[in-house]
Design goal:
The chain contains four helices and seven strands, in the order E-H-E-E-H-E-E-E-E-H-H. The protein has helices at 27-39, 70-80, 128-138, 142-153; strands at residues 10-22, 44-52, 56-66, 87-95, 97-105, 108-117, 120-126. By secondary structure, it is α+β, with helices and mostly antiparallel strands. The protein has two domains: 11-95, Alpha-Beta Plaits, CATH 3.30.70; 97-153, Ubiquitin-like (UB roll) (Roll), CATH 3.10.20.300. A hairpin with a 3-residue loop joins strand 2 (44-52) and strand 3. It has a four-stranded antiparallel β-sheet, covered by helices on one side. The chain is 31% helix and 44% strand.
């Protein structure tokens, strides 16, 4: 695990990247597996469409976790998918310095995560759950809430 606060620029050492090709796992299971992996402490989980031998459509499950969570991730993948094996390798992850701020919109406040490069904000991302809640509460399209946040950021 990193010895740095999560908002400071740093490199996470002792991380593991896991890959599994799944050509016979039903699509309904994939979301379930993703939730289980995140609940168990995965840093990231995603699927990529691929083609395997004989042009069989499939998905590749990839996940990132700390080395101390690897055994649990492996157990989940092997128990909850149709794979008979996994690929894994150590990896280091660079993390930008981050700061959180609140932006006021006409519908209410939204938390925004900002990425800093040499003490300068170079990217900003509104918190999805806050935007979603405002969109639902005020019966406006989610894209309008995002647009309002981005206007406030300029």
């Amino acid at each position: 695990m990193s010895k740095h606060p999560p908002d400071q620029e740093h490199i996470d050492e002792n991380m593991m990247k896991v890959e599994v090709n799944l050509d016979d796992t039903p699509g309904e299971w994939l979301g379930y597996v993703m939730d289980k992996l995140f609940d168990a402490g995965a840093n990231d989980v995603y699927y990529t469409p691929i083609y395997m031998k004989k042009n069989r459509p499939a998905v590749q499950l990839q996940l990132l976790c700390s080395e101390d969570r690897f055994a649990e991730m492996k157990d989940i993948v092997l128990a909850e998918t149709t794979t008979l094996g996994i690929r894994y390798y150590p990896i280091s992850v660079y993390r930008m310095e981050r700061q959180i701020r609140e932006v006021d919109t006409k519908w209410g406040p939204v938390t925004v995560k900002e990425g800093l490069l040499r003490d300068r904000v170079v990217k900003a991302a509104p918190e999805y759950e806050h935007c979603k809640a405002l969109a639902e509460q005020h019966h406006v399209p989610l894209k309008d809430v995002y647009h309002e946040v981005w206007k406030q950021l300029k």
